[in-house]
Design goal:
Shape: globular
Largest sheet: 3 strands, antiparallel
Structural class: alpha+beta
Distance between the termini: 54 Å
Helix content: 40-55%
């Protein structure tokens, strides 16, 4: 199999920075409600931007008491993820504000769409490039100085899941990684930083 790098160079967000990012959109507007939902989908489900754009209403469902979404990942492989109540409410708020209802829309309709500037009506499915612009816009609005991309939010989600105690297997399934070595890379990067020997050397208390 192709060699997987031992560490990830992508910069992620801290929990506090992620919270600030989610505060940036104006959820009283249709665009803000949509963008807020998109940011939460990236941060809570750890999706690739292409995966976010590819979600249709038919992929939304319910199983074992959980709201769910079926994600079509790389190579056509799919996985089913639970949608937490707070994320589901953010998604419904966006749909309702756009005048769309799950029981009236065709299943092939994209979940996230562009918005016509003049009418405010929903238009075509978002492109991965638009998701990139949305992330960049709110990173600046939140005053975050890091170089952050949609993949950075996926990186953040996976890292926070590992920090919260997820196993490598759980994180691999959640992220849709074909090779567990890719998931281990995220784990190794955080471990290397948190437990580096550099933390053991401190000159602050030394006498001049």
């Amino acid at each position: 199999s192709p060699r997987v790098s031992g560490s990830s160079r992508t910069q992620g967000l801290t929990y506090g920075q992620a919270a600030r990012l989610l505060e940036a959109p104006d959820r009283k507007t249709l665009k803000g409600a949509r963008d807020y939902a998109i940011l939460r989908w990236l941060l809570q489900l750890g999706l690739r931007r292409e995966e976010v754009c590819g979600v249709t209403l038919a992929e939304l469902g319910e199983e074992r008491g959980h709201r769910t979404v079926r994600i079509i990942g790389k190579g056509g492989k799919d996985r089913v993820l639970p949608i937490k109540p707070s994320l589901w409410q953010a998604t419904l708020a966006y749909l309702e504000m756009s005048g769309r209802a799950l029981d009236r829309e065709p299943g092939t309709a994209p979940l996230f769409t562009s918005i016509r500037q003049r009418t405010g009506e929903a238009a075509s499915a978002l492109s991965p490039r638009m998701v990139w612009y949305i992330v960049e816009r709110y990173v600046r609005a939140a005053g975050i100085k890091k170089r952050i991309s949609p993949h950075s939010l996926r990186h953040t989600a996976i890292t926070l899941a590992l920090d919260a105690g997820a196993t490598i297997r759980q994180a691999q399934t959640y992220a849709g990684h074909a090779d567990p070595k890719t998931t281990v890379r995220y784990d190794r990067t955080r471990e290397d930083l948190d437990k580096s020997a550099a933390h053991l050397i401190d000159f602050d208390d030394e006498e001049a």
